[in-house]
Amino acid sequence: MGKSTEKIVKRNLTRGYFSEFAGVKPMGLMIQTRLNTTVLIVLFIFAGCGGSLSDEQRKQMKEKMEMNKIVRVTEVEITEAAFAEGREIIKAIEDFKGDSAKLDSFLRINVGRVRFIQPGRSNARALEQQLVDAYLADESGLQQDNVQKVRNDQGDFDSLLYTKPVTKKMPDGSEQLEGVWNIWLPKKELVLEIGRNR
Predict the structure, then answer these.
(1) Quick one: which of 2, 149, 179 has its CA closest to 82?
(2) Residues 6 or more apart in contact with residue 180 via CB below 8 angstroms
(3) What is the pLDDT of residue 137?
(4) CATH of the domain at 142
(5) Residues of the chain under the 50 pLDDT cut
(6) Is 34 within a domain?
(7) Within 13 Å of residue 152, how many CA atoms lie on the same side as its CB?
(8) 40 and 108 belong to one structural domain
(9) I need a surface site. Which of 22, 50, 58, 191 has the fewest CB within 10 A?
(10) Tell me, what's the pLDDT at 163?
(11) Ramachandran region of residue 8, left (φ > 0), alpha (ψ -120 to 50) or beta?
C-alpha cells in the first residue's frame, strides 16, 4: 500500500468507513467529535464573556460564601446575641412611640416576629402566655427582659424568644404589667450574624 493510499484509508477510518475491517466503531467517533465540539463551544462562550464579574456580583458571591462558612458558636454567644438583637429592636420601638405610623409600619414589616401581648387577651401563643403569667406572678418588682430557647416539633432548638415587660407605676408605688413585647429570633440568623461580626 502506498503512502497516499494509507492516508485515504486513515481518513476514511476516522470518518467511519471500513469500520468492520479496522474494528473502529463509527458511533464512538461521532460521540467524541460532538463532545469535542461542545467543549469548544463552551470555551468560546466563556472567552466571549470575558470571565469577569461586576462588583455587585463579586459582593453577592462573597456573601454567599460567608453564609456557607462553618462557624463554631456556643449557646452563651447565641443567647447574648439574642439579648443584643432584642434590645436593639425594643430601642427602635421606643423611638417610634411618638410616631404611630412608623410603629405600625415597623410592626407590619415584622408581623409574627414582633408581638405585643397584653394580660388577659387571647392573642398569645402558649409560650407567650406562660411568660405573661410568670411576669404577673413575679412580686419582686424586678421585671427584666428575658430570653427563652424555643424548640420545634422535632425537639430541635431552632429559635429564641426575647421578652421585655412593659410596666406602669401605680400610685401606691407598685408596678402593674401593661403587656410584654415578644420578639421571635431564628437561631440561624443569630449564628450568621455572630459569624459576620467575627
Answers:
(1) 149
(2) 116, 117, 128, 131, 132, 135, 163, 164, 165, 166
(3) 86
(4) 3.30.450
(5) 4-5, 8-9, 12-31
(6) yes
(7) 7
(8) no
(9) 50
(10) 94
(11) alpha
Instruction: Please name which of 64, 82, 67, 63 lies closest in space to residue 187, comparing C-alpha atoms.
Output: 82
User: Which helix (H) or strand (E) covers residue 148, if one does?
Assistant: strand 146-151
Q: What is the number of domains present in the chain?
A: 2
C-alpha cell at 49: 464573556
pLDDT at residue 28, rounded to an integer: 45
Closest CA to 80 of 198, 196, 197, 194: 194
Number of CB atoms found within 10 A of residue 118's CB: 13
- 108 and 191 share a domain? yes
User: How high is the pLDDT of residue 3?
Assistant: 52
Distance CA 66, CA 81 (A): 18
Do the beta carbons of residue 151 and residue 181 sit within 8 Å? no
pLDDT of residue 42: 64
Enter the C-alpha cell of residue 29: 467517533
Sheet of 146-151: strand order equals: 114-117, 175-186, 157-169, 146-151
Strand-pairing partners, residue 179, are: 166
